[in-house]
Amino acid sequence: MPRRGKAPGLSSWLAIAALVLVVDQLTKAWILSRFRVGERTQVVTGLFDLTLVYNPGAAFSFLADHDGWQRWFFIGIGIAASGFILWLLVRHGSQRLFAGALSLILGGAIGNVIDRFVHGEVVDFLLVHWFDRWYFPAFNVADSAITVGAVLLILDELLRVRNSR
After folding, report:
1. What is the pLDDT of residues 111-158, one digit of tens each?
2. Is 115 helix (H, G, I), strand (E, B) or coil?
3. CB 37 within 8 A of CB 53
């Protein structure tokens, strides 16, 4: 039986975003205090390492090889996206899955915007690979939250379409 309680308010969704932001920034601070750029520590042999790399670009280092203008471009996109997400949360906060997904994306977006302001680029440190033969680009907690949020948005839309039939 579905829960019939009061829908979470904006403060609940902002608390989720704030939690993502705090965890993201604390893990980055920890990595920055213990690793030099390029240094790697094996966590799970052949599968997962911690490392410190900086990404001046976006996902998968998109635009990383440019001369610095992309920093301000991505800061602007992050701020605009955060404002739009806040607007969506105010209007659709009663939609739990949708708002929860947006909260994860908001916390991650702000975390990466902070990196761009402070460091000029994003701090990445999670490295998934397959026995040094295949590597997924390094990422961070903010990137993970954005990805999970995006998957949840897709799930929300699929459920919405299915329920409308």
Report:
1. 999 999 999 999 999 999 998 789 999 999 999 999 999 999 999 999
2. helix
3. yes
Q: 124 catalytic, yes or no?
A: yes
Q: Which of 24, 49, 115, 124 is catalytic?
A: 124
Q: CA-to-CA distance for 120 and 118, rounded, in angstroms?
A: 6
Report helix, strand and coil shares of the chain as percent, to nearest 5: 60, 15, 25
Contacts of 63 (CB under 8 A, 6+ apart): 56, 57, 70, 73, 74
Question: 24, 49, 115, 143: which one is catalytic?
Answer: 143
Active site residue 132: no
User: Alpha-carbon distance 73 to 65, whole Å?
Assistant: 14
- Amino acid in position 25: Q
Write out pLDDT tens, residues 65-91.
556 667 788 889 999 999 999 999 999
Residue located via tokens 């969506």: 88
Q: Give, in order, the Cα–Cα distances in Å from 91 to each of 37, 101, 149.
A: 42, 14, 18
pTM of the model: 0.88
E strand segments, the chain: 40-44, 48-55, 122-130, 134-135
| Cβ–Cβ under 8 Å, residues 110 and 69 | no
